[in-house]
């Protein structure tokens, strides 16, 4: 899982370059108005990256893993959390039961951070514009 901090704009973009040279962009709308990220439990592990408007030209290779806001956080139960600040390796078993601080997206207002899980191929270079 990776986390991306968001600035003042509600849309956050990530540029992707695949090993074969193909380039694309993923976009995430950081508010409860994105219908694919506003029902915290129902939207866990739902494909993300095509923006609020489900733009087919954007890369949708991430899975929703949770969000954090001014009033708390919600991490999907299926999202493994590292036991330290180091990125987990295949040898690391992560057992984590998140303490949920919100029951709905509206409880988090304003959303400041998303947790996404990469669900695409290995070897992709990820940058922020």
Tell me what you see in this structure.
- The chain has 129 residues and is mainly beta.
- Helices cover 3% and strands 33% of the residues.
- It is built from one helix and eight strands.
- Strands 1, 4, 5, 6 and 7 form a five-stranded antiparallel beta sheet that branches.
- It is globular, with a radius of gyration of 15 Å.
- It starts with a strand and ends with a strand.
Topology:
Blueprint: E1 2-5, E2 11-17, E3 23-29, E4 47-48, E5 62-69, E6 72-75, H1 105-108, E7 111-118, E8 125-127
Antiparallel strand pairs: 1-7, 2-3, 2-8, 4-5, 5-6, 5-7
- Spatial gap, N to C terminus: 20 Å
Report the β-strand fraction as a percent range.
25-35%
In quaternary terms, these chains amount to: single chain
Global outline: globular
What is the N-to-C succession of helices and strands? Answer: EEEEEEHEE
Runs with pLDDT <50, length 5+? Answer: 1-8, 83-98
Count of β-strands: 8
Our count of helices gives 1
């Amino acid at each position: 899982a990776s986390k991306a901090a968001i600035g003042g704009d509600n849309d956050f973009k990530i540029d992707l370059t695949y090993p074969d040279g193909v380039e694309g962009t993923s976009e995430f709308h950081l508010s409860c108005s994105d219908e694919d990220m506003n029902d915290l439990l129902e939207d866990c592990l739902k494909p993300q990256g095509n923006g609020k408007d489900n733009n087919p030209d954007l890369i949708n290779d991430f899975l929703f893993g949770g969000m954090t806001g001014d009033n708390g956080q919600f991490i999907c139960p299926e999202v493994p959390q590292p036991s330290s600040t180091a990125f987990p390796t295949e040898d690391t078993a992560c057992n984590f039961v998140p303490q949920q601080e919100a029951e709905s997206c509206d409880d988090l207002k304003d959303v400041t951070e998303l947790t996404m899980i990469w669900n695409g191929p290995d070897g992709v270079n990820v940058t922020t514009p």
